[in-house]
Amino acid sequence: MRAGFRTRVPLSRIEDVQRLGLILILTATCGFAPGNGNSPVVFAAETLSTAAPAAVPDARRVIVCFGDSLTAGYGVDSGLSYPANLQRALDAKGYKYRVVNMGVSGETTKDGLSRVAHIVSLKPEIVVVEFGGNDGLRGLPIGDTQRNLDAIVDTLKKSGTRVAIAGITLPSDYGPDYVGRFNGMYPAIAKKYRVALLPYIYKDVYGLKGYIQDDGIHATAIGNRQVAKNIEGLISPMLRK
User: Fold this and answer.
1) What pLDDT score does 50 carry?
2) Res 28 pLDDT > 90
3) Residues carrying an active site annotation
4) Ranges 7-11, 43-47, 183-187: which has the least confidence
5) This prediction's pTM
6) Which pLDDT does position 52 carry in this prediction?
7) What is the 3-state secondary structure (H, E, C) of the chain?
């Protein structure tokens, strides 16, 4: 085609194209097809639905492991923490529970008390309370630690959940008086509220080769398996199938 050459389109052809465009617009917006008696256009349902399938709710009863780094599983993969091992053990025995790890590294009993309302909101059937180690290592007043731990257990008990306490101890260089008072607060609270007590969460763990990390505080993957066994024994009277 030479530059500047223009083809004239008859006006009637332009009007025909405009009318066709109008018909197509009306067809799309009104849902009718031309030339078939204005029959509704039928779309397959699956082509219109974009909603994801509804998730099946988890009906299992809840066990919350509530504590600091010993519960969180500091230094190991999350799947190797004691709560994760406890979940596998309960599954293997046919128990229908969902174990929720609510451990936060570095927390004191005061931090735990600030979170206890959230724990209650999970509506757990059982809560394993493991706090105090960070209070002791920081040399915080035993009276404050005991009051915080007491308030945690009191709040949980009043909510209707069943509570178990997992205790810890301190190195001997903190002095016999401080260590003795620290160790004594766990049985005192357990007796007051009539809850299950594991005096030492590291029973059959601490001092065994390969069971404690190089920091001398946190359990290894192997150690956490034993901790899970200890906790399972602690809560076993509360479990139901």
Assistant:
1) 58
2) no
3) 69, 215, 218
4) 43-47
5) 0.78
6) 64
7) CCCCCCCCCCHHHHHHHHHHHHHHHHHHHHCECCCCCCCECCCCHHHHCCCCCCCCCCCCEEEEEEECHHHHCCCCCHHHCHHHHHHHHHHHCCCCEEEEEEECCCCCHHHHHHHHHHHHHCCCCEEEEECCHHHHHCCCCHHHHHHHHHHHHHHHHHCCCEEEEECCCCCHHHCHHHHHHHHHHHHHHHHHHCCEEECCCCCCCCCCCCCECCCCCCECHHHHHHHHHHHHHHHHHHCCC
